[in-house]
Amino acid sequence: MAAKRSKARARLAAFVLLLGLVGGAWGWWQWHHWQPDRAAFPVQGVEIGAEDGAVDWKALKATGADFAYIDASASAFARDPAFSRKLRRAREAGLKTGAVHRYDPCQPGDKQAANFVTVVPRDAAMLPTAVEMEHTADECPVATSDAEIESELMIFLNQVETHTGKQTLLKLGTKFEARHAMAAKIERNLWLERDLFEPDYAGRPWTLWTANSALASDHVAGRLRWVVARP
Question: How many CB atoms lie within 10 A of CB 185?
Answer without folding.
Answer: 13
